[in-house]
Amino acid sequence: MKVLILGGGGREHAMAWSAMKSKHCEELFVAPGNAGTDRIAKNVPIAPTEFLQIKEFVEKENIKMIIVGPEAPLVAGIKDFFIDAGLNDVHIIGPSKGAAMLEGSKDLAKRFMQENDIPTAAHATFTANSVDEGKDFLNTLSSPYVLKADGLAGGKGVLIIDDIDEAKNQLDEMLLHQKFGKAADQVVIEEFLNGTEVSIFVLTDGDHYKILPTAKDYKRIGDDDKGLNTGGMGAISPNLLADEKFIEKVEDKIIRPTLNGLKKKQYDYKGFLFLGLMIVEDEPFVIEYNVRLGDPETQAILPRVQNDLLVMLQKTAQGKLNEIDLTIKKEFAATIVLASNGYPGSYEKGRRITGLDKAGKESIVLHAGTRSSAEKILTSGGRVLTVTHLSSQLKDAIRKSYGSAEHINFSGKYNRTDIGKDMISYMRKKEI
Ligand code: AMP
Ligand code: GLY
C-alpha cells in the first residue's frame, strides 16, 4: 500500500518511522515533511491544507491511505473533501469535519459534553454582543479565571488569570480587540479545575476503540514547569497516574459516551482521539478534545506499540478495529525535545546540526523543525528534534535519552533537564 502522511513535525516523523516498519508499506510520502522524513520516505512540497493539490498527488501516485497528523486539515474538512470528490477508496485516518469540531470549536465541544453527560468544567460562552454578561459571569466564579478562544489558536488561545479585573480586561481584548483574531469571536469562560492533568490517546473506528499507551507531556518551557507554555518539551510513557482503575472510569464516563454522542450525530470518526483530562479527587474531567495525536507524546507512544501501524490503521478505516489485539511494550519511553533558544518566542533558524548519526545509533532521533541543505541538516523551527529512549526502568530511559541528546549539537540548542523527574518521585512515593 502507498501511504501519505500529512504534516511536518516530530509527530509525523514518528508516524513515518512506525509506518516504514510495516510490511504493507510499499511507498511512503510525507507532505511537507522535514529533513528526517526525507531520509526514510519521500517529502512532497504540499501544505496539509492544500486539498486540491493533495487530491491530484494522491490520484497520480495511487495512494491508498492518508494519515493526517495535525488538526488544521481535519477541521478544514479533508475527509469530507475526499468523499465529495468521489475518492471513497482512499482511507483517511482522521474524523470528518463535523466531528473535528470537537477540537475546532471549544463551544461546540462543551455543548457536546453537556448533551452527552460527559464530565467537564462548568462554563458559559460569550460574543462581542454579550461582553457585559461575560463580566457578570466572571463575578460569579472564583479565581483563577479560565478564558478560552473558541477556535483554533495554535495552542495559545487559553488564558488562566488570577485577577478578576485583568480577566475582564482580557475578555475585552479577545472579544472586542481581536486578540487571537477570528478564533476569539466567541470566548468560553470556564470554572477552574484544580487537579492533575493526564492525556489519554484513543484510536477508534467509530464503533470500536483501542486505548493507546498513556503519556505525560511537559508543556512549559522551563524546568519545574516554569515559564511560558509550549507545544510540549518532552514526554514520558506510560503515565503512571492513569492506572487501570482510572482508565476504566475514563472509558465508562468519557470514551464510550463520546463515541455514542458522535454516532447519534452520525459523525464519521475513524482516527485518533486525544483526551486532555484533569483528575479531580480521582475523577476524570475533560479539559479538551483533540482530534489527532499529540506532539511530542506520539514520539514516546508509537515506539511502545508493537503492532503493525498500517494494519491497525487499515482496520480502523474498515471499521474492524475489534480484530486487532493491541500489544504494548512494557518498557518506559522518555522523549526529550531539543529546541531553539528563544522558543516559544522568536529564535534563530538555519543553524547546522551535528551528531545526529551518533545519537541515532543509541536512541530514536526524530526530526521536527529541520531542513536539508546540500549535505547539511539545518534548524528550521522552534522545536527542532526529539530523542526517545526505551528501557525497562524509567530512570534509565531518561538517562539514556539525555545521554544521546548530548551528542547532538547546534548553536542555541535548548532542552529541559527535568523530563520524567516528577514521575520518578511519584514512583518512589508509591513504591512502584
Ligand atoms: P487547553 O488548550 O484547553 O488544553 O488548555 C491549555 C491548558 O490550560 C490545559 O492544558 C490546562 O493546563 C489548562 N486548563 C484549561 N482548562 C482548564 C480548567 N478548566 N481548569 C484548569 N486548568 C485548565
Ligand atoms: N503536546 C500537546 C499537543 O500536541 O497538543
Global Rg: 21 Å
Q: What sort of overall outline do the alpha carbons produce when their principal axes are compared?
A: globular
Task: Report how far the terminal alpha carbons are from each other.
Answer: 43 Å
Helix % is 25-40%
- Counted by DSSP, the helix tally is 15
Note down, in words, how this protein is organized.
It is built from 15 helices and 23 strands. The mean pLDDT is 97. Strands 12, 15, 18, 19, 22 and 23 form a six-stranded antiparallel β-sheet that branches. A five-stranded parallel β-sheet has the order 3-2-1-4-5, sandwiched between helices. It has a four-stranded antiparallel β-sheet with strand order 6-9-7-8, sandwiched between helices. A hairpin with an 8-residue loop joins strand 7 (145-149) and strand 8 (158-161). The longest helix has 21 residues, at 244-264. The chain is globular and about 60 Å long. Among the domains are: 2-97, Rossmann fold (3-Layer(aba) Sandwich), CATH 3.40.50; 123-190, ATP-grasp fold, A domain (Dna Ligase, domain 1, 2-Layer Sandwich). The protein is of the alpha+beta class and 432 residues long. Helix 13 (356-362) runs antiparallel to helix 14. The structure holds adenosine monophosphate and glycine.
